[in-house]
Amino acid sequence: MKSKLISVITVVYNNVELIEDTIKSVLSYERDSFEYIIIDGGSTDGTVEVINKYLDRISTFITEKDKGIYDAMNKGISHSNGTFVYFINCGDRLLNLPIKELSDNISNDINCFPVELSSGKKLIPSNGFMLKLKNTLPHQGCFYKKSKDLKYDLDYKVFSDFNLNQQIYQKKGKIVVFSEPVVAFHDMGGISHDKKYSKEIFKVVNNNFGVKYKFFSWVYFKKRGLIHRFKNI
């Protein structure tokens, strides 16, 4: 297959209620500059039947059991042909394809754009010290330059995207952030917003930057939690 500028990838498992909106948001754009890949984890709830309606406009569709979301995302990367890899997973919606910005910044390891959250807020990415403490680069806004090192660590169940961003930052990869355009709508109902998995954040920080930054990260989130609590009193 001829290489495209972008490989847009959606991973999904048993989410028949949301998958069609995600697919439609991607297929509303002209396909000259991107391919569309969908990786399904072996859904049994009707998700596959919805996807089948659009097969003539999907470059690659795979449905089979996997080891979780990051295994599926790695599978999507392995089947991609684009210069950049971009994930818009089930429940999220594509709002813009930044063709010009990507074409003008072809050598960057990550080009990252703002994301609209289901809370109504606009999340603007940042690349600096705070990336050592929390994930300041939402994957719904990140276009990753494809390389042999682009792979999610399956040791992390929820925050492997954070780990990948930290590793690229740690290796002094070229990460460029943009203030416009907003490229995606992100549904915050996913597993990464479940507080019971928050300890994995500190595991990521500790493994990449050591115990000192793990402590700084813990202080940051503790302070943020206290501020939120007082605001709601």
Features:
single chain; 233 residues; alpha/beta; seven-stranded mixed beta sheet; four-stranded mixed beta sheet; 11 strands
Describe the fold and architecture.
The chain is α/β, with parallel strands linked by helices and 233 residues long. Helices cover 32% and strands 18% of the residues. It contains seven helices and eleven strands. The chain has helices spanning 19-27, 47-52, 69-78, 99-104, 160-170, 199-209, 211-231; strands spanning 6-12, 34-40, 60-63, 84-87, 93-94, 110-112, 115-117, 122-123, 142-145, 175-177, 184-186. The strands form two sheets. A seven-stranded mixed β-sheet has the order 3-2-1-4-9-6-10, with helices on both faces. A four-stranded mixed β-sheet has the order 5-11-7-8. Helix 2 (47-52) links the parallel strand 2 and strand 3. The radius of gyration is 18 Å and the shape is globular. The mean pLDDT is 91.
Low-confidence stretches: none
* Proportion of residues in extended strands: 15-25%
Spatial separation of the terminal alpha carbons: 57 Å
Give helix % range.
25-40%
Give the rounded overall mean pLDDT.
Answer: 91
